[in-house]
Write a structure and sequence with these properties.
The complex is a heterodimer of chains A (289) and B (431). Chain A has 289 residues and is mainly α. Chain A contains 11 helices and 2 strands; from the N terminus they run H-H-H-H-E-E-H-H-H-H-H-H-H. In chain A, helix 1 packs antiparallel against helix 10 and helix 5 packs across helix 6. The chains are: A mainly alpha (289), B alpha/beta (431). The interface between A and B is large, with 43 and 41 residues.
């Protein structure tokens, strides 16, 4: 059972981590609470489905097309719907909710509410301790690991990564040092939605597509971000695996209460916040200068 | 100046005639609201069935009620009920108050249908249910007849009988397992989504499964919208289950079947899986839905009576797919029209009296209501089918030489084929 819990934690934790890091990035850099983040993940998943099933292109090409399309979509959304109201955080939050709903309805119109799946990139399974594990699950864990490592390298080893981290630490100082903060924010949003698209690509063969598939991960992603500390990438990473672990424990230890997995995870988040309001790795909020 | 005045007067007179004339034309139309989740398969089939009925009645010249001739007009309402019971009750309110429909057919999700039922009853509008199974919907008729008498369920039969039929399927598959691979007491994992209609079924399963010579391996209750159940599946494998008794109406039915198929987990899936009742199930599961067995109303090539084949054929010809049970809106509309004809009135109270007397064949069997306006289940009435996905196609597998009691006659509908265990199951357990 321990192996099952570890495996489940790794799969779900990696998905949450990928989504939460993207969400955390744009919040940290531009203070944009992008509720539409998981809707970009849903759009990417449908693009991959469309590419592989309707256009008949190879999966890798479909993934690339989906990432580019979602990045362009992210750019358009930022330029026309977010940037003009960026200084009003509540308005941005509401605008991104509206964007997510618009994406959902458009997908519903094009693909209907029917459920869809895509075949695994790596079919087959292996038996481990009497339990079957699909190769695709292992591939998804590996893909998530590679993507997380690439993000880490990008943020710590590139000039743009440095700019993003600097802006996240202090927007005003970054501005005073001559950095174009608005441009960094725009690029960060594009990077963050690309991460959402990559998450869609990594987990797509394991899941079922439907136009509302963005809602459940949104709740967990926000819980992860709050638990880890708003804007903290390290916090998002750690929080993702903590919540995924708690979910796995619920399913394995209380089978009748499997539907409570999200509630238990959110309760853990509340408990941590009661003890440490800034989250695990967050910095206590200070007044804006 | 005189000429424009004459023109203006003529125009006003024309508009006046039109405004009076149209309601007069409208009075010869029976408007029937069709309510359902129109963006989803269930709603689409609600609408398809209703369109069929409308065209069949109108092309036959309409219906004569008393000394007046009426045409049928079906009005579509998207209840969005899978996501929001509030949207559903608003949609019902609009159908009755704005569209001024005479009757309503449809509904799918219990929580939403309960809310819609109350709105319809407030307006004393007949509402024929074609989707929700909860017994409570009809219990309300018995509890408060004067208020709820305008509600009748056409399909499916209620959850008590659904579960009863499922237990028969479960016992049948258990018997096949004993015979094929020698498992004396197959272990059953009960997996029911977390929804209101499942609660009673899980309790009944706990009480009944041991009496069927089967053993309970555990109970799992995933979310109905779960898109990943690998954790549950690992736990079910650990529990050494041979059969998974599924109680699903939503996404989780696809997720479950797909992930079991991906991993070729050696279990037989029996129960209700609404997604597996649809023609798109194999596409939805990426071709991994084989060997899933579910209760269903229609099965390709299966005939309950002489009305089944003509209905199925014309449905497939018109819409290019097999109907799901919600397409019984067709029967519902035909019944409403026939009862209005017999009552010689469009008055709801008079039609209720005629519906209560209804005892006739429809394409899914013989329909007669009990005192709570619930269809009677059993041999000779409605029984439903057991269907299984075999080689990418849905086939009817139950009733196959079924005897309700030792004395009862054996029932096998035309077109039924033998049930198949998954080959990887046989491979694992064959001694």
């Amino acid at each position: 059972m321990i192996a099952d819990i570890v495996l489940t934690t790794l799969i779900n934790g990696s998905t949450y981590a990928l989504l939460a890091i993207g969400f955390s990035l744009i919040f940290g850099v531009a203070r944009i609470v992008n509720i539409a983040h998981t809707a970009f993940y849903m759009v990417a998943a449908y693009c991959i489905f469309y590419g592989t099933h309707r256009l008949g292109v190879p999966p890798i090409l479909a993934v690339l097309m989906a990432i580019i399309l979602v990045m362009v979509l992210g750019f358009i959304c930022y330029r026309f719907f977010i940037e003009p109201i960026r200084e009003h955080e509540a308005a941005v939050l509401i605008a991104t909710i509206a964007l997510a709903m618009v994406f959902q309805e458009i997908v519903m119109l094009i693909f209907s509410g029917d459920f869809r799946t895509v075949p695994p990139l790596l079919p087959g399974y292996l038996e481990f301790g009497g339990v079957k594990i699909a190769f695709q699950q292992l591939l998804s864990i590996a893909a998530a690991g590679v993507i997380l490592a690439a993000v880490w390298t990008f943020l710590t080893r590139t000039r743009l990564g440095l700019a993003i981290r600097t802006t996240a630490q202090d927007r005003e100082v970054a501005n005073l040092m001559g950095m174009n903060e608005a441009r960094v924010a725009m690029l960060t949003l594009v990077v963050s939605v690309a991460l959402a698209a990559l998450t869609g690509a990594a987990v797509l063969p394991l899941t079922v597509l439907h136009p509302h598939m963005w809602m459940a991960p949104l709740i967990m992603m926000m819980a992860v971000v709050v638990l880890g500390g708003l804007g903290s990438l390290k916090g998002s990473f750690t929080g993702a695996y903590i919540l995924a672990f708690s979910e796995a424990m619920v399913v394995f230890l209380i089978p009748k209460g499997a539907f409570l997995r999200e509630s238990v995870a959110l309760s853990i988040m509340i408990l941590v916040l009661l003890l440490r309001p800034e989250g695990l790795f967050g910095i206590a909020f200070e007044e804006e200068r | 100046m005189k000429r424009p005045m004459i023109l203006m007067t003529a125009l006003m007179a024309f508009l006046l005639v039109m405004s009076i004339g149209f309601p007069a034309l409208g009075a010869d139309t029976i408007k029937i609201g069709v309510i359902g989740p129109m963006q989803f398969v269930q709603g689409k089939h609600h609408w398809n069935g209703a369109l069929m009925a409308q065209d069949e009645i109108n092309s036959a010249g309409g219906v004569k009620i008393g000394d007046r001739k009426f045409k049928i007009e079906v009005v579509k309402a998207d209840s969005n009920e899978i996501l929001s019971p509030t949207d559903a009750s608003n949609a019902m309110e609009l159908l009755i108050t704005r569209e001024k429909v005479n009757f309503v057919v449809g509904g799918f999700r219990t929580e939403s249908v309960l809310a819609m039922q109350d709105v319809a009853m407030d307006y004393r509008t007949i509402f024929l249910g074609c989707g929700a199974a909860t017994k409570k919907l009809c219990d309300r008729v018995g509890e408060d007849y004067d208020r709820y008498k305008y509600w009748f369920r056409i399909t499916p039969f209620n959850d008590v009988f659904l579960v009863k039929t499922n237990f028969i399927h479960l016992a049948t598959v258990g018997g096949i397992m004993r015979k094929a691979v020698g498992i004396e007491k197959p272990r059953v994992a009960i997996v029911g989504e977390k929804q209101a209609w499942v609660e009673g079924m899980v309790k009944a399963s706990e009480a009944t499964i041991p009496k069927l010579g089967l053993e309970i391996a555990g109970i799992w209750r995933p979310s109905q919208m779960a898109t990943d159940v690998t954790a549950e599946l690992s736990a079910i494998q650990r529990a050494d289950a041979h059969i998974i008794f599924t109680i699903f109406s939503a996404t989780v039915g696809v997720t479950f079947a797909k992930q079991i198929g991906d991993l070729q987990i050696p279990v037989a899936q029996v129960g209700i899986n609404v997604e597996a009742q649809k023609e798109g199930f194999m596409e939805a599961t990426g071709g991994k839905g084989n060997y899933v067995m579910t209760l269903n109303t229609y099965g390709p090539g299966v005939e309950y009576n002489e009305l089944t084949k003509p209905f199925m054929d014309s449905y497939v010809k018109r819409f290019g797919e097999e109907p799901v049970y919600n397409a019984a809106t067709r029967d519902a509309i035909h019944m409403l029209v026939e009862c209005a004809k017999r009552a010689e009135s469009l008055d709801s109270d008079n039609i209720v009296v005629e519906l209560e007397k209804w005892d006739e064949k429809i394409p899914t069997g013989r329909l007669k209501f009990n005192k709570d306006h619930d269809p009677i289940w059993g041999p000779g009435y409605l029984t439903g089918l057991g269907v299984q996905w075999q080689d990418g196609k849905m086939v009817g597998v139950w009733p196959n030489h079924w005897k309700a009691t030792p004395e009862a006659p054996e029932i096998t509908y035309k077109g039924i084929k033998p049930y198949k265990l998954p080959p990887w199951f046989i491979q694992k357990y064959k001694k």
